[in-house]
Amino acid sequence: MAYYGKCIETVIEQLDRLKPGDSPEQALEAASASLQTLSSQKQAFVLEVLSGCLEYHKLLTTVVDAFYVRDGRLCLWADYNLFKVICYLATFQLGELGFQLFCDIVKSQPLDKMCKFLRFFFSPLNLSSWVKDEWSLVYEAAYVKENWIAPLMRWQPEVQELIKQLEAMLVNQSPLSKTKAKVTEPKEFNLTTPRSRAIPMPEPVPAMAKPRPVPRSTYQQPKEQHLLDKAKRHNRRRAEELLLRANVEEMQCAVPRSRREPPTQGTGASSRLLQGSKKNLQLRFMPRILKTPKLTFYRPNNIPIKLNAAAILREGALYQRQVERELQRVDKLVDGAGDFSEFLEWQKKMQAKDQEEQLAAGECRRLLGKLSHEEAVLARQQLMQGNKQKADQKKEEMTELMQQCAERRLQEERSMRELVERVTEAQKNVKVAQTKLLKGRQQIVQEVIEESRELLQRSAEAAKEEQRRRCELISQLRALETQPMRKGKLVDLTQIPGYGLEGEMSMVELRERLALLKDAQRRAEEDKRNQIIQDKRSKSQELQNVVEQISLCRAAMGRSAALRWEEKKAGAAAPGLRSQDERVLALQRRIEETAAERRRQAPLLHVSAPRTPRAPRAQPRAQLEAQHWLELEQSRERRLRARQRRGSACGRARDLEAA
After folding, report:
1. Is pLDDT of 372 > 70?
2. Which of 648, 264, 211 is nearest to 450 (CA)?
3. Within a domain: residue 277?
4. How many domains does one find in the chain?
């Protein structure tokens, strides 16, 4: 019972610490942090009950508040959380805990309180009437009746029997002795009366400053207005530039790339303006080409790897298992087991055959990609011829569109001039209204200044009177401070206070005992430190032995791997060139035919092209194509080498498995 009583007390303490603004998640985190010293079973029980009380707070408070109003008028409010926890256990945890465990928990608490609360809560009339109605306001009525009210009604016989047992235990308890308690006689504390603080002299009230005259800026236009006018003029000029730039860019889009010069038919102011704006924009917005320096990356080789203790022990165990497997294999061979050499030779032959087929398939894919590239180049040449014919047809349409844009721009300029004239007229009317408003504000300011001057005079007179009264009061207090006072109190550290407490001692004895306790703690810490140092040394020696074994095993494995690699290289260099596949030869012939067709059409395309700047790009394109195919060949060789390395690695792994 004491075990469950402590658990319930822990839950009640956590509930008492809760504040109105705390959330359930914060309360559970704080409780889990404060319960680290408890056992895991006890901690789990406390957290489960605490989370349940927080989750069903509304239901539990409804029952406990009604208990205090009806049957618990004489109960203390300090036991509020106790009744709350018992109500939660009876409603939600009675089936899981079991009735016997619930009885132990109830009997670990004050019997009179538990008897009164259980009689109130398990009353059939209360459960079927107002408890059910109040809980149905929070949750659905069917859910409340099926999951909570019905189980409580089923436990009625056992709970009534428990209530009778509690009443019998209360009757059998021995009555408390009614001896009159000794009345505590209060004694006055013998404390040194503190010295009263000296009241500082109040600061003198400053004299009223002479008001300054009205500044000249009141009757002048403010500086912000000049800045606003300047900003408006700047924004208007910027908007005109942007509008002109947009018109020029629109006309540039209408002109084809091969004819960027304005037409010679248009003369006059509009054509000259167009030419000048176009040159300025070309100089201003010419793109700048920035070249980035080439970066060089260095990959360090032979980086030392530092292994921790776990890695060293893991690798040592791995080599130990390999040695054990090798010894088992030798024992099997001695006993007459078979060898896997014939199977490994057959496996190598089949792998070589599969590798040749894969290489032939990869070569076919590469040649198919090259063939599709040649066909795409040929189709692109045919498309360029059709595009050139369409471009010649649209040149005349672009010239007409440019003339229409110039006429539309002139019309927009006329409309903008009319809009500017209307805006200037509106600004003149605004200035007249501003002058009238400024005069009215000046009159209001003068009236306010006169009223503030009168208020300052009145406040200065009141401050002088308050200062005189304070000076008189301070002089009286300083006269009282001049009276003599006794100070000082003697303390004997070797004297025992004599309060009648168990284990009472003087301050000197307490200090000596604390010194002896510190010496004992220091000796225990030194012993523990020496033990830790010895354990570390033994562990480091074991790790050093394992590292030496690992180095020997690595050297042996490296030598065996080098031998296998030399054998693999010798086997790969022995056979001659691989035989050509029929599919590869057919694809090569098709590529040569397509490339010849493309070369025949290339001169015709260059002769009929009207644009001369495109001709010098033929040579770099050919160089790019050659570089592209060279990179494809290099990547193919790299894949072949990687595949060979993977095959050799797989062979080594199979050898290890067979061993």
Report:
1. yes
2. 211
3. no
4. 2
